Amino acid sequence: MQKTYDPKDIEQRTYQRWESHGWFKPSGQGAPYSIVIPPPNVTGTLHMGHAFQHTLMDVLTRQHRMQGENTLWQPGTDHAGIATQMVVERQLNAEGVHRRDIGREAFVKRVWDWKAQSGDTISRQERRIGNSVDWTRDRFTMDEGLSEAVTDVFVRLYEDGLIYRGKRLVNWDPVLHTALSDLEVMSQEEQGSLWHFRYPIEGGSEHLVVATTRPETMLGDTAVAVHPEDERYKHLVGKQIRLPLTGRLIPVIADDYVDPAFGSGCVKITPGHDFNDYQIGVRHSLPLINIFDANAALNDEVPEKYRGLDRFAARKQVVADLEALGLVEKIEPHKLQVPRGDRSNAVLEPWLTDQWYVRIAPLAEPAIKCVQDGRIRFVPENWSKTYYQWMENIQDWCISRQLWWGHQIPAWYDDQGNHYVAHSEEQAKQQARAKLGRDVTLKRDEDVLDTWFSSALWPFSTLGWPQQTPELKSLYPTSVLVTGFDIIFFWVARMIMMGLKFAGDVPFREVYITGLIRDENGDKMSKSKGNIIDPLDLIDGIDLESLVAKRTTGLMQPKDKDKIEKNTRKQFPTGMPSYGADALRFTFCALATMGRDIRFDLGRIEGYRNFCNKLWNAARYVMMNLESAPPATATGPVEYSVADRWIRSRLGATIEEVRARLAEYRFDLASQALYEFAWYEYCDWYLELSKPTLQSEQSSDAQKRGTRETLAVVLEAYLRLLHPLMPFITEEIWQSVAPMAGIKGETIMLQSYPTAAEFSRDAAAEAAITPIKAVILGARQIRGQLDIPQAREIAVAFQSPEATDEASIQASLDVVRGVGKIGELKILPSDAPLPPSATANIDRRTISSPLAGLITDPQAELARLRKRKAGVEQNLKKEEAKFANPNFVANAKPEVVALGHERIAEFRRQIAQLDEQENMVSRL
RNA sequence: GCGCGCGUAGCUCAGCGGUAGAGCACUACCUUGACAUGGUAGGGGUCACAGGUUCGAUCCCUGUCGCGCGCACCA
User: Fold this and answer.
1) Which of A56, A151, A712, A753 could form a disulfide with A740 if both were Cys (CB 3.0 to 4.6 A apart)?
2) Beta bridge partners of A35
3) For A303-355, what is each residue's pLDDT tens digit?
4) CA-CA distances (angstroms) from residue A705 to A519, A631, A813?
5) How far is the CA of A572 from the C1' of B26 (A)?
6) pTM of the model as a whole
């Protein structure tokens, strides 16, 4: 083994070996365990959020595979309708071409070309982080099979009356020229104005004042509403208003919707361009005037002067013209919520169009119930509240999009405007024939479905539905869904509804909601902010110039370039070093707390890269000590030391802890337990304790065999325990270590996941190691206090109230003296007087070394003693305070009271001893 | 308005009824035969604030302050 751990050398060849052997495929044996990957955009690249979630899914997948389950991690990608179409449109624009110039067919071909060119980038990246997905089952939402599932679902929902076509207001994106669902609307507060206009009452000199944030819509007003109980306006209800600029007559109506306390208490009503006004329009049978075209420019419904004006130009013009007429009462600054498209960022318009909708309430009801009754469990549980809140107020889902990239809606129209929903044009024609009694030419609906419509089918469409495949039968419902809270509504809820409706059961039994990865300042990572970290750059490293180039090319706002470059150069003056995939994965696990924001901190990944190196070197030590005498082939009696028994017991405890934490999705606590065992127990203690045994002439062959075997067996099992989190380094080391532990196998990834039963707890060994550690720690403390060189042995006395400590130390005397660099080691009764000594207290034990002969500074020693005493006195005071309260003894658990007594006695003893030392040292 | 989350060491975060923890950063010493991507020792916290429950509260309850998120919104 090389002296330094080098992930570059290991990772890619290891992954290729796993994949080429087909080890990621379900075994076909054992209890089913399956996860579907949240399909990333097929033309996208892997970002930190993917890498994070994929790591967690891979941990689960690898663990369950090792547990002998029939494990599938289903990979795939999504066609990401709007996003992908936008990318290709931008490419075309760069060539000076609009998609309409080349037509739908050619455009869709261009998108497929783009997909072919960039489509495997993300899967290559997934391989780099070690995803053990079954690539042979890779799926894409636009694949034939998945498209068939989409058509099937659409037709069945239509036949069940759960899909309908309706003309109503939708959120219209005037830049992308498509309808959007409610979820794709991002409302944000923006500074605007509140314009107050005077509307003259017909047949008199009175007027009403209406306030609006959107003056241009007044051209489409069809009423003014007041509150029915509003005394100020009661007499005007039923009268007519001569709408300025248009000359149209519109009624004054009364409606509860109006808040008399807001503004003037009069509201202009524009049913064609406001969702609330639309409702009022319906209630009062008001005409609806659509004044916008698809670009949100004014159409022919408005006076000639305004036609063709963009809405924002129209706004200025309307205000100017009303001003000229003296009809502007006042203009106030006003904050309002502006709806924008989540992709285009364009201000959306409520616009009257024909769209397809899913009638959602009947689907939502069972979907709510299955979470209430526990068939689906959210982790952390609190997210179910978010789910309920949305599901209980759910609105019909607009599923049609005026795009070219996506699943075209399986609906055909005849020349009379009738529609036929069918699996094919043939079937549609049959329906038309049946209805009309003659053959007609049909025209297919041009629109495509919302991408999330196909994503909603993902857990069963990828398993072969609508065919009843063996995979569907055995692996559906999937075991767990791992995803971010940002798509609970978009995706999780819809999968639950569709799964229940079409696959006959919940799509997954648990939903583990991860936090969102943010940068070191807590900001969301985004291209436009220039704070993106590419997970592959963390794995491979990247020089500063490449990093700057990566962050500043292709920006939507080129003006941000300088700022991004400056920040990047400041934050990464030397670029980023290579950390390797294992360190990255371990970092993600360690950061996977139950919180909702995760700040990615480079210090963390560096620490875990060092951990990899530590593990690597520990393995080197083990191999060095085993190669000459591999325990697997050893013959003869074997004797285990206390340390051997102790480390096995600790491994057992660690296995238990890791398994328990993984079972509750506490990847952070699992990784912590793994880290602590390897570093603080195996390396810091066990390897050190093994050295005297292996190196000493005094130890017997049986003892050496026991230690060698323990080194190998514990490391081998630990590697298996760690493997799901750090697959590459564990595989690499395991290949060398496993034969030493007598284990044969081609790969660690198909070995059994360790059970605590393999390493049963040994309370006696754990108790016996405590005084051994205490002596060593105490000797080190004294050495540190007195500035005694490491190499120089010191004489040490040990005192303990524990009767069994002496035997424990005697049994491991050589080891204690070796590791602690101790010459003479005396074991004294707890109350024995000490000569002037440097002392240390470890738990309830005192370790001391006579000052005689040690070069030391009595004043410094005195200061130390006084400080220690002050600390102990404070602890004593705290403890005694508890007993000052008589209720403590009466009410507290007996073991707590007993512990308190012990602590008080111990503190008093230490204070007495410190006093005595202080006395003696002051006389030196 | 409704719902949710967070305030613990300089920084990033665990812990959550009975002696305050980790990583990074910091200080001193140490290249000893696994590892300087290291070792050893050490400094550093009235666990946001105020009440309450309890023998005992960082932990449970209530409120306050500060920060954040989601949903719905008054023209």
Assistant:
1) A712
2) A73
3) 999 999 999 999 999 999 999 999 999 998 888 889 999 888 899 999 999 99
4) 50, 7, 19
5) 22
6) 0.94
